[in-house]
Predict the structure of AmmeMemoRadiSam system radical SAM enzyme.
Amino acid sequence: MALAVASYWEPLDNHKVKCLLCPRECVIAENQSGFCLVRKNVGGRLVSTIYGEIASAGYDPVEKKPLYHFYPGQVIFSIGTNGCNLDCRSCQNWQISRQETHREVFPPRMAVDYASRYDSIGIAYTYNDPIVWFEYVKDTASMIKEEGLVNVMVTNGNVNLEPLRELLPLIDAFNVDLKGMTKEYYAKFSSMPNPNVWEVCERIKKAGKHLELTKLIVPLYDEFTPEYFEKFARWIAENLGKETPLHLSRFFPAYKLMNTFPTPVDVLNMAYNVCKEYLYYVYVGNVIEPEKESTFCPKCGALLVERIGYEVSVKFSDGVCPKCGRPVDFVT
Ligand SMILES: [Zn+2]
């Protein structure tokens, strides 16, 4: 099950191959794997070593992805496997994303079967980065669509444009982890010298897909100044739209940053206040702040969705604000 010929690569001399799936474009010698660990050169051909195998699965609230404006309060079957095209210093899931673990055989048909149990709305490809699982995600997502269910990708958003074009018709919603606004940030924090996440976000939006962004605020990597967060929020508002939800997440020591301190709560609140100047929907994560986790109408301020942790209460119906009638920015 596990070995499947990969999409997006080209043969080079001496049985080497060049992977063309993500902008890293690894050149891989025979019997070696790319940076992602799970795309391997076998006999001069690139194969995916994780096709139809999962390392993690569960039924999660869609808010946990996080997606706050997509089927609020619903459950989604979530699966992940091994591998990632980035190596972020603070990865929460490095045990599965940056090393190989035990995997269960889980062909697409089985995933589709699980996806409709327990009132799940479909499948979220998450935990590790689904980009490196391209072949399986594509096959499974096609079958999910045929069943009338939804597909969600939780991703770092660094993927070449041709594979992205293939995925876009199949994926209903994306949460993209926008780590920084510069190549230097990605090189330093994620060991990724040539990110293209900004263009990918624009393409997702242009394709009419639901997009939410997550920004983890990391001490020693992010600047704790209003100007710094203004740059984030301004770019999102100007290029993706003011209605794009932004999740600002509090950092806790993890992986290669075990000796770093958590994001100070006043920094998180400062970033929230700055971003709210530019964007309709800003949320904070990994901290208890009910007022900053709920959704309010940008026109009249009415409460639209109340969230306390994963307890979700939807206050609107018929797709409009109950007080002023403004169409709500939700997929339901
Ligand atoms: Zn309103």
